[in-house]
UniProtKB/TrEMBL annotation:
Origin species: Aestuariivirga litoralis
Protein name from the UniProt record: Cupin
Superkingdom, taxonomy of origin: Bacteria
Length: 97
């Protein structure tokens, strides 16, 4: 993720090179990434089933996430991602440079 304010979720970068950035995001209940704008196309791979709340410029939204089912988004997405579960939630994010 790029240009994000500091949220309470924990990020661990596993790979960063001239082609990709692979980051694991772990969220305690209610934790968030912080408001950010994606500077690259990216793929998210949920590590478990769960729900996230997205704060966006057009208002809040919710997304159901399924373990192992990836999704793709183009650069330019702006949001804050919040764990909407009563337990820890995690996903892998792969930014494509």
């Amino acid at each position: 993720m790029s240009d994000h304010s500091h949220g309470s979720a924990k990020s661990t970068v596993f790979v960063e090179n001239d082609r990709v950035i692979v980051t694991e995001w772990r969220f305690a209940p209610g934790a968030n990434t912080g408001w950010h704008k994606h500077g690259h196309d990216y793929v998210v791979v949920p590590l478990m089933d769960g729900k996230v709340r997205l704060e966006t410029p057009t208002g809040p939204a919710h997304a159901e996430m399924k373990a192992g089912v990836p999704y793709f988004r183009h650069a330019g997405v702006e949001h804050d991602v919040i764990n909407a579960n009563d337990t820890e939630y995690a996903f892998i994010e792969i930014e494509i440079k």
